Amino acid sequence: MTRRRPWARRTAVIAVSASALVALAAPANAATSTTQVDYATWQKDCQTVMDQALPYIQQRVAAASGEKQAIVFDVDNTTLETDFGFSYPQPANKPVLNVAKYAQEHGVSLFFVTARPGIIAAPTEYNLEYDGYQVSGLYVRGFLDLFKDVAAYKTAQRVDIENKGYDIIANIGNSATDLSGGHADKTFKLPDYDGQLS
User: Fold this and answer.
1) What are the φ and ψ backbone dihedral angles of 37, each rounded to 5 degrees?
2) Residues in the chain, pLDDT under 50
3) Domain locations in the chain?
4) What is the assigned CATH class of domain 36-189?
5) Which H or E run contains 172?
6) Model's pTM, two decimal places?
7) For the chain, what is the total number of helices (H) and then of strands (E)?
């Protein structure tokens, strides 16, 4: 007769209890939050949006008549693979980089408006340039900006870019806070999968 070890039974009970705790802690919309998007799907979905952005930007560049044109980009999960790039420098989001390269090669200035804090401005700018973006300006949040609404903060930065004489022909980001508030001729929203990608 095989005797059961007492610790084996306790381990099973602990495992069940841990599973129960995870289930209790799961949000009400657990179906969407537990379905994680994979890299290939994200890249395909980003490419779909950039396939719409590129012809528009080509058209705007061709029709330019001396005005200073600019594109405003978000950083995290827009220009950089923040949730998928597990190293530093983080890799560029290739569909976005390809559009950015076309724009910068045709005289369009690239500005980056991010909710990242100012303390990481230098590493962020280095990362963007390392990946091939020509940074005409990087806007990060100062200490007081951390207490402001993100959408209002980002809108104010676009106003500042316009005040420098630029026509913002496109604003590209993956969150509603990146794109709301106007001050861009057209917006292109990349997927965030209901907030899964910050």
Assistant:
1) -75, 145
2) 1-34
3) 36-189
4) alpha beta
5) strand 166-173
6) 0.81
7) 7, 5
